[in-house]
Write a structure and sequence with these properties.
Number of helices: 11
Structural class: mainly alpha
Radius of gyration: 25 Å
Distance between the termini: 40 Å
Mean pLDDT: 83
Largest sheet: none
Order of helices and strands: HHHHHHHHHHH
Shape: elongated
Length: 315
Amino acid sequence: MSEPTKSENASAAIPGQRGRGKGDKGGKGGERVASLWSDAWADLRRNPLFLIGGFLVVFMVVLAVAPGLFTEADPRAGGFCNLADSLKRPSGAHWFGFDVQGCDIYTRTIWGARNSIIVGMVTTTLVVLVGGVLGLWAGWIGGLGDSVLSRVTEIFFAIPLLLGGMLIMSTWGKGNAWTVSAVMAVLGWPQIYRLMRSAVLANKHNDYVVAARALGAGTGRIVSRHILPNAVAPVIVVSTINLGVYIGAEAALSYLGIGIQSPAISWGLMISDAQSRFLNAPHVLLFPAAVLSITVLAFIMLGDAVRDALDPKLR
């Protein structure tokens, strides 16, 4: 019998290239390659937390992208508000009632999803891109750049998200969804940077990386094929949970009058306008606050489910 080649020995040390069993599905002959991602997806499909959270998240995204599917009225059109309807309670024709300006709360709540979802999605994307790229670079290269970036992140960690957002937005002036997203991304990237850097440091000296290097793989191939897939799991988990946190932070800034400004529509603005009328017209506050809470909870549920599926220690 011939000796196994060097490439055969090395490939056996690389995760994701596990042996195929006869009973496994997928691949040639009905075989499947076991991996963290396939196992995680199988767990997620059986997790009620993921199914409920995922359904709510998809529903809220559709609400933000196509509000016209849920209401024919447009709050941006002239004549939408009528002071004669001020503070009227919910009815069969107007499910959420009217606010102090005589505007239909249901329609404004539907349209308010757009700015909140934009802030959450854009902020999370920027945070993952900036923090992830810098963390990947610092963890892999190390040296002086790693030391400098680590000290910078310590400075940002000393600034609470809401307090820093209040300080920046109060000096920025009139805000919108894009400026709020930029401010929160500036304050939020260090967390993802630390996660990515720690994951890279934990994986860069593993046997499968050494094997890939011995086979002559370049830095780009090692990072993209072996380091990044094994380091991205904690980033996905934290980013999913933080997306809901960013939506809540935007609502808090808008509530304080330094986030998204009128005539834009935001759940935080609606809650701010309703606070003085809560005792005699509680519906003005309850409906936008309930939708905001459900949205934040949905993303947190989704993140918890993904964490449970991707963490082998919880299996």
